[in-house]
């Protein structure tokens, strides 16, 4: 196979064409990494929720059987069922730990892609000026060296006055500048060191994907029985994983779910109808019906995140909840799987209560 020629460092500043080629490096591949990561995050979270749902359901059934066993009923397979239940719990916990580790790996990959994207942008903005400065410094140093040589040889030989014509001296030497790849790799390595020097809590405890994973697993395990631990308690002092809102108010209305001493409204503040597909904001503790909030954003003439005088950025609206001034774009909203689960539990409880009431009336 043909071998590439030996690498030679640049001897001149970047041309406009070279600068355009650097800018073109940021493109679809990095966006594809981000898209694949989002799909993987959702898949891992769904699987973790599903297996813990199965475990919770199994343990509820075991609890019902326990009451019968305590009365001496149907005890033939009790030992086997209890042993299998312990084994099942251990297996689910092991798989959940593996899924959580995989989630951290995906987050690291996403951060690495963003780090590369940011470093390429920085390179396009800063490398041309840096190489231009290096080039001018080399020329200045060469001119000083040539002037010194002329002064040293004036008494012994006749030499021509003035600098050597052109950027390349007669001896064939050229300036040697820092390679663009070196500048990029140095920037990338420094940013990676900044990230890896952070504690695990600093990396993951406030990452939306990781928070959603932890919330969903906790909800699958415990439902509304116990509060979700705070993110700062998820990792130990050594950095290892620790072992295993909306409106606040004092009155519990029929349209509220009481969770962790907060009342989560089950009605959209835009439509005032009960949620069918809740979308929650990443910027504020407010939730809306998906179609309602996205339609508001679609009709908005306000844009957020743009630069310059021309309209740019994403369409945005001020949070519809009175007293909240956060500007929301479609990217600031996410499908709230936790609230969906809580709504489903509330509906099942209402149905069960209605059935129990009907049974009482028939007796």
Automatic annotation (TrEMBL):
<feature type="region of interest" description="Disordered">
    <location>
        <begin position="139"/>
        <end position="177"/>
    </location>
</feature>
<comment type="similarity">
    <text>Belongs to the NSE2 family.</text>
</comment>
<feature type="domain" description="SP-RING-type">
    <location>
        <begin position="253"/>
        <end position="348"/>
    </location>
</feature>
<dbReference type="Pfam" id="PF11789">
    <property type="entry name" value="zf-Nse"/>
</dbReference>
<dbReference type="InterPro" id="IPR013083">
    <property type="entry name" value="Znf_RING/FYVE/PHD"/>
</dbReference>
<dbReference type="GO" id="GO:0016925">
    <property type="term" value="P:protein sumoylation"/>
</dbReference>
<keyword id="KW-0808">Transferase</keyword>
<dbReference type="InterPro" id="IPR026846">
    <property type="entry name" value="Nse2(Mms21)"/>
</dbReference>
<keyword id="KW-0862">Zinc</keyword>
<keyword id="KW-0833">Ubl conjugation pathway</keyword>
<keyword id="KW-0479">Metal-binding</keyword>
<dbReference type="GO" id="GO:0061665">
    <property type="term" value="F:SUMO ligase activity"/>
</dbReference>
<dbReference type="GO" id="GO:0030915">
    <property type="term" value="C:Smc5-Smc6 complex"/>
</dbReference>
<dbReference type="GO" id="GO:0008270">
    <property type="term" value="F:zinc ion binding"/>
</dbReference>
<keyword id="KW-0863">Zinc-finger</keyword>
<dbReference type="GO" id="GO:0005634">
    <property type="term" value="C:nucleus"/>
</dbReference>
<protein>
    <recommendedName>
        <fullName>SP-RING-type domain-containing protein</fullName>
    </recommendedName>
</protein>
<dbReference type="InterPro" id="IPR004181">
    <property type="entry name" value="Znf_MIZ"/>
</dbReference>
<keyword id="KW-0539">Nucleus</keyword>
<comment type="pathway">
    <text>Protein modification; protein sumoylation.</text>
</comment>
<feature type="region of interest" description="Disordered">
    <location>
        <begin position="223"/>
        <end position="254"/>
    </location>
</feature>
<dbReference type="GO" id="GO:0000724">
    <property type="term" value="P:double-strand break repair via homologous recombination"/>
</dbReference>
């Amino acid at each position: 196979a043909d071998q590439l020629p030996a690498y030679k460092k640049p001897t001149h500043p970047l041309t406009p064409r070279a600068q355009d080629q650097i800018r073109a490096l940021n493109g679809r591949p990095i966006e594809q990494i981000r898209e694949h990561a989002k799909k993987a995050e959702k898949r891992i979270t769904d699987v973790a929720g599903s297996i813990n749902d199965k475990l919770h359901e199994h343990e509820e059934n075991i609890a019902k059987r326990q009451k019968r066993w305590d009365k001496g009923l149907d005890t033939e397979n009790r030992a086997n069922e209890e042993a299998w239940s312990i084994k099942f719990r251990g297996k689910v916990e092991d798989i959940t730990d593996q899924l959580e580790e995989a989630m951290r790996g995906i987050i690291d990959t996403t951060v690495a892609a963003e780090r590369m994207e940011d470093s390429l942008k920085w390179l396009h903005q800063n490398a041309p000026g840096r190489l231009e400065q290096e080039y001018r410094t080399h020329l200045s140093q060469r001119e000083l060296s040539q002037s010194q040589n002329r002064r040293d040889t004036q008494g012994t030989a006749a030499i021509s006055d003035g600098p050597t014509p052109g950027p390349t001296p007669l001896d064939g030497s050229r300036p040697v500048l820092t390679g663009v790849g070196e500048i990029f790799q140095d920037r990338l390595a420094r940013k990676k060191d900044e990230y890896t020097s952070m504690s695990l809590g600093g990396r993951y405890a406030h990452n939306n994907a990781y928070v959603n994973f932890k919330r969903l697993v906790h909800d699958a395990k415990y439902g509304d029985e116990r509060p979700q631990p705070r993110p700062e308690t998820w990792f130990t002092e050594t950095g290892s994983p620790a072992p295993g809102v909306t409106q606040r108010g004092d009155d519990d209305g029929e349209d509220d779910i009481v969770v962790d001493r907060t009342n989560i409204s089950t009605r959209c503040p835009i439509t005032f109808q009960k949620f069918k597909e809740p979308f929650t904001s990443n910027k504020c503790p407010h939730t809306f019906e998906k179609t309602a909030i996205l339609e508001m954003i679609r009709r908005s003439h306000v844009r957020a995140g743009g630069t310059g005088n021309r309209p740019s950025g994403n369409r945005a609206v001020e949070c519809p909840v009175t007293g909240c001034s956060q500007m929301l774009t479609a990217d600031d909203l996410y499908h709230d799987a936790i609230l969906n689960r809580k709504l489903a539990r509330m509906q099942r409880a209402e149905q069960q209560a209605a059935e129990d009431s009907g049974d009482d009336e028939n007796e």
